[in-house]
Amino acid sequence: MTSLFDDLPLGELRLPNRIVMSPMTRVRSGVEGLATASMATYYAQRATAGLIISEGIQPSLEGQSNPLTPGLYNVAQIDSWRQVTSAVHVNGGRIFAQIMHAGRISHPDTTGRQAVAPSAVAARDAYVFTPSGPQPAPVPRALGTREVPGVAESYATAARGAMEAGFDGVELHGANGYLIGQFLSSNANLRTDRYGGTVTGRIRFAVEAVTATADAIGADRVGLRVSPGAGIWDVSEPEIPELYGALLEELAPLGLAYLHVAASPEEDVIRGLRRAWEGTLIVNPSKPGSPAPSTREDAERWLLKGADLISFGRAFLANPDLVERLREDHPLAVADVDTYYQGGDEGYITYQPFSAPSDLVATEG
C-alpha cells in the first residue's frame, strides 16, 4: 500500500514524501509585490513537505486580485523571491511558484486598472478585497481576440522569472474561478470568437497558457491546478466530463509535472479525472464548505483511490512540522482565522513545532 511517507520522482526532482503544501493566499508581500524576509521564514519552516506550492503570484499588474499579494513580472520582484527559494532549499525543501491571473476577481482600487476577463460579465453577489475593504466585483473589460495570446504568454514570462528566482517549477492556477477558470466557464465566458462558445473554444486559453509555459521552462517543471464543479466566484461548468476530458486530452501529450485537483463537490469528478489523466495527480481532499483541515485519514483514503500526492492547505498554517505530526500521529494545532490575512508575523511565522509534554519526575526530598 502506498504511504504518505513514500518518496516519488517528479520530473528531475525526487520528493521525500507525498505531502504537498497547497497554495494559500496570505497577503504578506510588500506594497510593490515584493517577497519579504518573513515570507522566506514562513516557507522555510515548512520545507519538510515533499513539495511546497507558493501562494498565488500575479504575472502582471492587471492580474492582481488582492492588495499585498506578490508578483513575478519585474526584476525587483524576481530578485525578492530569491531569499524565499534559497531558504527553502537550504532547509532541504522544494518549491513551485503558483502563477495566478485573477481576471475579473480584481478591482481598479487595487491595481489602478480595469479588470480584464473573457467577457464583460461581473461575478454575481461577489465582493473582492481592496485597500479600503471589500467592494462588489466590478464589470471587467472583455479581452480582445488579439490580446488573448499575449495574456496566455504572460504565464510563460512569469515562469521564466520564477526559474531566475530559483523556483523548482511552476503551477498555473486554473482553479477557483480565476482567469483560466473564467475562460472554461459557460457563464463568465460568453465569447463568440475562437476562445468561446464550444468546449473546444473555451479550453483554448488554458491550453495556450500551459503550452507556452511548458515551452518556456520545460513541461516537467509545470503543473496545472483545476477545481471542476466547485462553483467558486460564480463560475458555471455544466458539462464537466466533456469539458475536462477535452482539456486533459489536449494537455496529455505535453508531459506535465502534474495535475492538481482542488476540492470538488462530487468525488466522482475526481475519480473521473484520475481515469483520464495518466500522469502524476495531486488531490486536495479538503471538504467544500468545511473549515476543518484535512486529516491523515482523508489523505490515505485518496491515496487508495489513485492519487499520487496529497496537498494540505489549512493544516499547514498552524503546523509548520505537519509531515512529522502526521507521521507520529501527533495532534494538529488549529490556526487562528483572524490572522489569515491581517498581515504581520503573528499567526504567520509564530506557530511552533510539536512539543510533547514533559514527564513529571519525582525527586526525593
UniProtKB/TrEMBL annotation:
Pfam families, A to Z: Oxidored_FMN
Superkingdom of the organism of origin: Bacteria
GO molecular function: FMN binding; oxidoreductase activity, acting on the CH-CH group of donors, NAD or NADP as acceptor
GO cellular component: cytosol
Coiled-coil ranges (or none): none
Gene3D superfamilies: Aldolase class I (3.20.20.70)
All residue ranges annotated as the NADH:flavin oxidoreductase/NADH oxidase N-terminal domain in the record: 3-331
Keywords for this protein: Oxidoreductase
InterPro entries, per database record: Aldolase_TIM, OxRdtase_FMN_N, Oye-like
Cofactor(s) recorded in Swiss-Prot or TrEMBL: FMN
Family assignment from sequence similarity: Belongs to the NADH:flavin oxidoreductase/NADH oxidase family.
PANTHER family: NADH OXIDOREDUCTASE-RELATED (PTHR22893), NADPH DEHYDROGENASE 2-RELATED (PTHR22893:SF91)
Protein name: Alkene reductase
Native source species: Arthrobacter crusticola
